[in-house]
Amino acid sequence: MAEGLSTWQEILSQPQTWQSTLDSFSDRKNSFDKFLDRAVFDHVLAIGCGSTHYLSQIAKGLITQYTDILAHAYPASELWFYPNKCASSRTMLVAISRSGTTTETIKAMESFQETSGGMVLAITCCPESPLAQGADFVLASPDAHEESIAQTRSFTSMLILAQCLASTLAHDEARLKRLHRLPRVLEEVLERIGQLPQQLGEDLTIESIFFLGSGPLYGLANEAMLKAKEMSLSYSEAYHPMEFRHGPMSMVSEKALVIGLFSDTGLAHELRVLEHMQRLGARTLAILEDAKVFTDWKPDYVVQLKSGLGEWERSPLFLPVLQRMAFHRARAKGLDPDHPMNLTAVVELKNN
Hints:
Blueprint: H1 5-12, H2 14-38, E1 43-48, H3 51-66, E2 70-75, H4 76-81, E3 91-97, H5 103-115, E4 120-124, H6 130-134, E5 137-140, H7 153-169, H8 173-179, H9 182-193, H10 196-201, E6 208-213, H11 217-232, E7 235-239, E8 256-261, H12 267-279, E9 283-288, E10 301-304, H13 318-332
Parallel strand pairs: 1-2, 1-3, 3-4, 4-5, 6-7, 6-8, 8-9, 9-10
Helix pairs in contact: 1-13, 2-7, 2-9, 3-7, 3-11, 7-8, 11-13
């Protein structure tokens, strides 16, 4: 497996990098509390580019689920081009970048600082990067940095930092403690599903893949969609489950795979969408906490998380399964996941 070796090793290493990320956050928790104590804000604006824009969507969703703080998420370029999106000095910017060198994110941070003077929190894998140096506080996961272009362990590790941020804003020490279960639970999930990601990834009779997720899981659906595109050059789209019926399901056929990333809150309605897609001929995969919910019907494939965690706490567990599927699909198509077509690890714009 010479081609894609870096990506594969990074996918495999996630239990270790998650543990390192959680330990690092615990070491800095007191300093982070002091930062938040002096940061006066009632609004959070989360930004990123590509994968980290989708991570900003998740961060926004977690903050609004866990706290009463108003939160929004935008691509970094939107804040760079339209700085009036930042409400006031009572806005805290959460700028997310794996490398900390992405041009749009740095420009957006600078624009935000010039326009509002609000506090900046950086989430990154590179604590010495320009983004980190320009921020007021940094949450970093250096052990999750990658050689590969497509983000895998960096995304999920920074997602755990976003979980820690939202839990800290909610003053929920019990939730922070529960997050430490994630590395062990991931190992259990991967052992339980066996070769399913490889089986689905290598099935090239599947010509289109649709990812469905609501609440904070919508950002996960977007990221899974992006992994399928980047690694395997596959036709893939992401939608909120209930929205999928409003037009997009016209694309469903026996050559489609519809994947539900299911919450607890909307589970009954979301499952009906997947059942409907199965009746239309699609192959279906449900990723959810427990398969006991299936009584009168069952998807073609099921991944049970069995995490014992809250519905948003378990969110990092969804992606390693889908990253593996994208990896195996790329290899089945003769592609090198380490070198996706037309892409570089960092987008740095010149003369800006």
